[in-house]
Amino acid sequence: MEPVVVERDGSVAIVTLNRPERMNAVNDVLRCALIDALGRLNADPVVRAVVLTGAGNRAFCAGQDLDEAAAVTWQQIVPWLNRQRAMYQAVRDLDKPCVAAVLGVAAGAGFQLALCADWRLTTEDSRWGQPEVKAGLASIVGSYLMTLHVGHTHNVQMSLSRELVTGRRAYEIGLVSGLHTEEELPKAALTRARTLADLPPTSVRLSKQRLRAMTQPGFDDACVAGIRAQLECYADGEPQRVMAEFLSKRNARESQ
Questions:
Q1: Antiparallel, parallel or unpaired: β 127-129 and 165-166
Q2: How many angstroms separate the CA atoms of 162 and 108, rounded?
Q3: pTM
């Protein structure tokens, strides 16, 4: 099974995160495939807009794959987080409009991927948030990305509580561009992408490049701060303990 599936609908490319058995959680295989796919689509003049979505109806992306995260040693933190940074940057680097169609959960790395898109369409009962602190990790990059969309009060509450908010609430506070039913969502995302694809490509490209330049210093700073923070978290040992407990319980359930 391909970890990322790319389909074409005229000038729109539909990119699907394809690990539904793990709620489309990000591991190194999916990460590399997504970076490669988005790079190729960005260089393709026929593609004028991108829809980013997840396979299945449980999750857009439930975040970082904990099997991978639990196995990371402190010596591997820097290259590991730099690859994660490259994945977010691949979405940010798109010179074509990107519409995220979010069904189910968008948490952690999945939440951050969606925040890097230009449009976020979802359902009222989807779930959004930053649960990193629950896993013993600092909320750094996600909290920066939220500054581009919501005020400080909402940012603090989502970064520190580890609680997920509904799609309705995400829409009310400005994280989400539009709400649709589950049945309407794929068509709505494609319709929005087609509308954006019909715009003059040079003006869109230059506008996106300027928007990216305005936020790149803050993004770069957050990524560096994130590496420093997670090094300290892993040195403390809390992420390893929390994730080992979770995986032990999950594996016990799956073996029954």
A1: antiparallel
A2: 10
A3: 0.94
Q: What are the CA-CA distances from residue 154 to residues 17, 86, 131, 221 (Å)?
A: 28, 27, 14, 21
- Here the tokens at position 7 are 């389909």
Helices (H), ranges, 106-200: 109-116, 141-147, 152-161, 167-173, 185-197
Question: Cβ–Cβ contacts within 10 Å for residue 184, how many?
Answer: 13
31 to 113, 141, 236, 238, 249: CA distances (angstroms): 11, 17, 27, 25, 26
CB 105 within 8 A of CB 130: no
Angle 222-228-232 (CA atoms, 0-180°, nearest 5)? 135
Q: Per-residue pLDDT for the chain (256 aa), expressed as one digit of tens each? A: 899 999 999 999 999 999 999 999 999 999 999 999 999 999 999 999 999 999 999 999 999 998 898 888 888 999 999 999 999 999 999 999 999 999 999 999 999 999 999 999 999 999 999 999 998 999 999 999 999 999 999 999 999 998 999 999 999 999 999 999 999 999 999 999 999 999 999 999 999 999 999 999 999 999 999 999 999 998 888 888 888 888 888 887 887 7
Cα–Cα distance measured from residue 16 to residue 23, given in angstroms and rounded to the nearest whole number: 12
- The one-letter amino acid code at 212 reads R
Report d(CA 179, CA 123) in Å as an integer: 5
Q: Which long-range contacts (CB under 8 A, 24 or more apart) does 200-209 make?
A: 201/48, 201/96, 204/95, 204/96, 204/97, 205/95, 205/96, 208/94, 208/95, 208/96, 208/97, 208/118, 209/95
Side chain identity, residue 118: D
3-class DSSP assignment, residue 91 = helix
**Is 117 buried (19+), middle (13-18) or exposed (0-12) by CB count in 10 A?**
buried
